[in-house]
Amino acid sequence: MRSHPRSRALTAAACALTVTVAGCSGTAKSDAEDDVKDTARNAEAVPDAPLKKGLKLAFLPKQINNPYMTVVDKGGIEAAEEFGGEGKEVGPSDAKASSQVSYINTLTRQRQDAILLAANDPDAVCGPLKAAMKQDVKIVTYDSDAGEDCRHLFINQAGSEDIGRGLIKDMAEQLNYRGDIAILSATRNATNQNTWIKIMKDELSKPEYQDMRLVKTAYGDDVDQKSFQETQGLLTAYPDLKGIISPTTVGLAAAARYVSGSEYKGKVTLGGLGTPNQMREYIKNGTLEQFSLWDASKLGYLGAYAAALSSGQITGKEGEKFTAGKLGEYTIGKDGEVVLGPPTVFDSGNIDDFDF
């Protein structure tokens, strides 16, 4: 993706995951579960091993009808075809905490070589993921993690610090560092959302933001209509609200749709994460000035190539390297994290250069 000058605010070096994900359950891990992880970590990688043909990869998004997730998974399925694998997308129509569990169980019974998961809730999915790992199914999380002991690799779309602090910095610049703001998130349990929100709050605690105040964090559950209604509720409850940050593509699109047809257009600043195709009309009609994201299709593409786990090229240890097709070489970081790269800021000057 072509970088944009404003993206420098988002590209501070932060490629390691900065917030430790909470443990997957309140109960003690069994010896068998520990053995699964230890066996994977102690295995020897064979970097020159070829990718196995016919690998079966299943993408399990937060919800099946999320436009952003569709783009991510399509990129992964195309990558699987590129190296002779078989990719598919399955998943629930809602983003509830437990909605992914039955799919994980079914995919395990189907003997998929790898399950690629964007977790709705790290606690709800951890047990089923560990059961899959015991059956030698490789687990790769992407977009939203499930916890280091519940998977082999986490494909992070960008450094969490980059995203969280960058969203606050960009909003502050547009508001001249003054005014009340709100956050419109996805679900309350989404790992990535909570990580970014924690970092956003920390950024706001700095002296330069003394005239900015976070008045509320609302949750649209990654449902378009609920996010639309939550936007309306925020603007009604806080008449002096100056800005809304939505670090979810569903939420930002819904917020823009509401504001574009209301009295708040031109008065309330919107920012967050969105796809160019969803947000193009709102950039061009002046509803918002800019938003951020990474190349969603590349996130899925990178996740598919992490199927090198299933071919023995890598085991998930820090420092191991693998080649992700046209994206080139990647190195596994701390806690099994692989970072796609810095996000891009989209505005009227570059949005027509992208189609996803």
Name the descriptors.
single chain, 356 residues, 6-stranded parallel beta sheet, 4-stranded parallel beta sheet, 18% strand, disordered N terminus
How many helices in DSSP terms? 10
Structural class: alpha/beta
State the helical fraction: 25-40%
| Largest sheet geometry | 6 strands, parallel
The rounded distance between the terminal residues' Cα atoms is: 12 Å
Q: What pattern of helices and strands is seen along the backbone?
A: HEHEHEHEEHEHEHEHEHEHEEEE
Strand content of the residues, in percent?
Answer: 15-25%
pLDDT below 50 for ≥5 consecutive residues: which ranges? 1-33
Q: Taking Cα atoms only, what radius of gyration do you get, to the nearest Å? A: 20 Å
Please tell me about this protein's structure:
The chain is elongated. It is built from ten helices and 14 strands. Helices cover 35% and strands 18% of the residues. The chain is α/β, with parallel strands linked by helices and 356 residues long. The protein has helices spanning 31-42, 67-82, 101-109, 122-134, 160-174, 191-204, 224-237, 249-260, 276-284, 296-305, and strands spanning 56-60, 86-89, 114-117, 138-142, 153-156, 179-185, 212-219, 241-246, 269-272, 290-293, 321-323, 329-331, 337-339, 344-347.
